[in-house]
Specification:
The protein is of the alpha+beta class. It has a single domain, classed as Ribosomal Protein S5, domain 2 (2-Layer Sandwich), CATH 3.30.230. It contains eight helices and 14 strands. The strands form three sheets. Strands 1, 4, 5, 6, 7, 8, 9 and 14 form an eight-stranded mixed sheet that branches. Strand 5 (56-59) and strand 6 form a beta hairpin. Bound molecules: ligand DP6.
Length: 329
């Protein structure tokens, strides 16, 4: 048998995915656009073996049990179906994120697993098929198969809901600074939060419609040289997503006091002439989008006014196979 190790980098959405049209197929309510980051990634080794009676999964060297393994097993079932085989697998993942960054991500995890597991099962998936497989693990993982900026097309069925890289004008030279507000695991997962929002928030239909249009606008903006337009679209998408949770029943928010403090600081910096815009996922941490020209000045200001750790990121590469080993059956 072949054991395959793959690496995938995490991505941060500039136009958010928030809500599913089909939870079983993992089809989103809207298309989304992201930036893959160079600093945060997951390495995953997968080995199928006739000697295993169950799938095993270790994360950062710790053997997982219960729901964590069941989720990985359900994902591997898709791979087994596609490869028409029934072997169990040993899966070992290591997250490479700065200590306590609070940025461990299902996007890099399932993108790396999709690449490693499909290869270890003997599949040679074409690019759209690989992004569709990653999507079955976690929606945002579909966008971590590629580097740079990526669109995940909403699609109307399994076949048409895939991700692909998009052209970015070199003049934009994007950078993203991750600010850790709180590194503890969030109380409401993305999956649960978006399901609650779809089920109860009257803002959700408006969100899905606006986000679909914004994705197309973002693709056009990234091809141009107007960073202000890219930044405004990104910040607005994040705030609209968070507005849907405030309107859910019961209402909830991922914001913490430090989240708003960072948001306001960036808005003040912008008023003073620094091109910087925020984006916030399903947690309290804030990411700041800027350009290579201004990234040091923005980082200086953040360090001066906040106590929180920051990490400066550039666009990251596509997922890739690190190693293929022949192992004994
Ligand atoms: C706020 O991809 O983690 O980060 O598909 O249920 O696994 P599942 O959710 P996930 O959700 C990501 C939500 C987000 C926005 C985004 O990355 O687009």
């Amino acid at each position: 048998m072949i054991a395959v190790t793959a690496r995938a980098h995490t991505n941060i959405a500039l136009i958010k995915y928030w809500g599913k049209a089909d939870a079983a197929l993992m089809l989103p309510a809207n298309s989304s656009v992201s930036l893959t980051l160079d600093q945060f990634y997951t390495d995953t080794r997968v080995a199928f073996s006739p000697q295993l009676t169950a799938d095993t999964f270790s994360l950062d060297g710790v053997l997982q049990t219960g729901a964590a393994v069941a989720k990985v097993s359900r994902f591997l079932d898709h791979v087994r179906d596609m490869a028409d085989m029934d072997l169990r697998a040993q899966v070992q993942s290591v997250n490479h994120v700065p200590t306590a960054a609070g940025l461990a991500s299902s996007a890099s995890a399932y993108a790396a697993m999709a690449l490693a597991a499909s290869r270890a099962a003997g599949l040679q998936l074409d690019h759209p098929a690989l992004t569709r497989l990653a999507r079955r693990g976690s929606g945002s993982a579909s966008r971590s198969i590629d580097g740079g900026c990526v669109i995940w097309h909403r699609g109307i069925d399994d076949e048409s809901s895939f991700a692909e890289p998009i052209a970015v004008n070199p003049a934009l030279d994007l950078r993203m600074i991750a600010i850790v507000i709180n590194h503890h695991a969030k109380k409401v997962s993305s999956r649960a939060g978006m399901a609650e929002t779809v089920a109860t928030s009257p803002f959700f239909p408006a969100w899905a419609q606006t986000a679909e249009a914004n994705s197309q606008e973002m693709v056009a903006a990234l091809a141009g040289d107007d960073f202000k337009l890219v930044g405004e679209l990104a910040e607005r998408s994040a705030l609209m997503m968070h507005a849907t949770t405030l309107a859910a029943n019961p209402p909830f928010t991922y914001f913490q006091p430090g989240t708003l403090a960072a948001l306001q600081l960036v808005q003040t910096m912008r008023a003073q002439g620094l091109p910087a815009y925020t984006t916030i996922d399903a947690g309290p941490n804030v990411k700041v989008l800027t350009t290579a020209e201004y990234v040091d000045a923005v980082a200086d200001q953040l360090a001066r006014h906040l106590d929180n750790p920051i990490t400066i990121c550039a666009p990251g590469p596509a997922a890739r196979v690190l190693q293929e080993e022949t192992v004994d059956d």
